[in-house]
Amino acid sequence: MNDLPQQLANGLLLGALYGLIAIGYTMVYGIVQLINFAHGEIFMIGGFGALTAYLWLPAGTSLLFALPLMILMAMACSVLVAMGAERFAYRPLRGAPRLAPLITAIGLSIALQQAIWAFYPDATKSRPFPEFEGGRIDLGAFAIGRGDLFLVIAAPLCMIALGFFVSKTRTGRAMQATSQDPDTAKLMGINTDRIIVTAFAIGAAFAAIAAIAHGVKYGEVNFKMGFIAGLKAFTAAVLGGIGNIYGAMIGGLVLGLAEALATAYIENIPGMSQLGGGAWKDVWAFVLLILVLLLRPQGLLGQRVADRA
Amino acid sequence: MTALLEVEDLKVAYGKIEAVKGISFTVDAGEIVTLIGTNGAGKTTTLRTLSGLLKPAAGRITFDGKPLGTVPAHKIVALGLAHSPEGRHIFPRLTITENLQLGAFLRTDKAGIEKDIQRAYDLFPILGERQKQPAGTLSGGEQQMLAMGRALMSQPKLLMLDEPSMGLSPIMMQKIMKTIAELKSEGMTILLVEQNAQAALSLADHGHVMEIGKIVLSGSGQDLLHDESVRKAYLGED
């Protein structure tokens, strides 16, 4: 077990990535009770947006210099797609039976994936994503990849900014009111349509940051990357208590740790040597989800439904 | 003098089912007007249409000289029409102070808002003692006080109260009714929807009795209170 610190670090990094994406699921669900299954693709499109921006720059530009433009472009792409989806796909279905927007979300997810596959140059296979030069950074007990530094800095900054926004600003307060009681929020003079768009936009911006973190961590982007990342982030959101932004981050971290530890150690348990290693990590992630749904259906930080009425 | 609120031949439908079938009434500045009637008479539907949560199928609503029919709900409160909804609908996971602040969402005068929050605490001291408590932990009566206080925070010209006495103990109900009388004496105009006809008519300048989507009887509060058919149907006398 002497590689435990390393496994914990791996898990936390993976978890922070899941958490950033999970924010988008949880914010939208918290306000319109919709699982936006196209959110994984909004994440993926952020990755392609960042890549596009990098390719605009002269060849050989240092990634560090390119990063601000890549962040802006990734956010612009993700946010625009998310706002478009809200306006043209979900808003017309508000008040429709819950199944209708759910099916729309799944359809939109497939459509966005295929659009990138079909129209982005060479996107039928993985496209290489720029990486930071230099080897892993040795921190004594463990080492992290150079690309992981982006996540180490960005994830806490994003969460602090979001926490401040939701609890301290006027729009954030209006967002809380809308999620607790949309009709009454209107009676206060809150334009709830605008609040809903804002929730989609914030979730998309976080997904865009996550996409860059994902790109510099793994060195590639592809049109399918939103599917499994989105599913894991959705799991993280449910794990933490869907609708709760801190729950999304904590759910992400718990899920990331569980995956990392299961990958590393399950095979050491007598009789389970077949079930360890990377091939089984998704299985353990979803086993964890099933356990939480059985034992604590409201999630780690969620309220029981009775409290929300 | 033109009325502050004028409702003319208002019809509201849920899909094909007409819940309000053409009602007309007015509210003058400074008076209390009450709509009474049983469940399903269309009282709450009427208020929700006035505040823009529902769209009228036909008819005209004029408030303070402006037509309201197509104005979205979040813009109506800015015109001076506040609505304390049936079932109180306070924001349960926000504190009492935050609930009151949301009532003043469209106001920008920070000092004035602070002053009005203090006024709400003077009006309802129990709220002042629990400022930092999540509103969901309050009792029903306290939540009703908060809902009224929150509606007042927008400095409305007309306050609409939907069933403020619903589910309250007799003592709490008296307290709420006393507060409504106090607000009137300060010059507030109130449109009151109540199932407790006795209490509502005692306070009201004018009353309208609604039955399945129509106004079947109108008169001064005192007249209705002594009207034989009203006493039979709503005040439990045979």
TrEMBL record, chain A:
It comes from Streptomyces hebeiensis. The keyword Aminoacyl-tRNA synthetase does not apply. PANTHER family: BRANCHED-CHAIN AMINO ACID TRANSPORT SYSTEM PERMEASE PROTEIN LIVH, HIGH-AFFINITY BRANCHED-CHAIN AMINO ACID TRANSPORT SYSTEM PERMEASE PROTEIN LIVH. The chain crosses the membrane at residues 12-32, 39-57, 63-85, 97-120, 149-166, 195-215, 246-266. Belongs to the binding-protein-dependent transport system permease family. LivHM subfamily. Pfam families: BPD_transp_2. It comes from the Bacteria. It is found in: Cell membrane. InterPro entries: ABC_transp_permease, BCAA_transport_permease. CDD domains: TM_PBP1_LivH_like. This is Branched-chain amino acid ABC transporter permease. Keywords: Amino-acid transport, Cell inner membrane, Cell membrane, Membrane, Transmembrane, Transmembrane helix, Transport. The keyword Protease does not apply. It is a multi-pass membrane protein.
From TrEMBL, chain B:
Keywords: Amino-acid transport, ATP-binding, Nucleotide-binding, Transport. It comes from the Bacteria. Residues 5-237 form the ABC transporter domain. Pfam families: ABC_tran (PF00005). InterPro entries: AAA+_ATPase (IPR003593), ABC_branched_ATPase_LivF/BraG (IPR030660), ABC_transporter-like_ATP-bd (IPR003439), ABC_transporter-like_CS (IPR017871), BCAA_Transport_ATP-bd_LivF (IPR052156), P-loop_NTPase (IPR027417). CDD domains: ABC_TM1139_LivF_branched. The keyword Metal-binding does not apply. One of its GO terms (molecular function) is ATP binding. Signal peptide: none annotated. The keyword Nucleotide-binding applies. SUPFAM superfamilies: P-loop containing nucleoside triphosphate hydrolases. Belongs to the ABC transporter superfamily. This is ABC transporter ATP-binding protein. The lineage of its organism: Bacteria, Bacillati, Actinomycetota, Actinomycetes, Kitasatosporales.
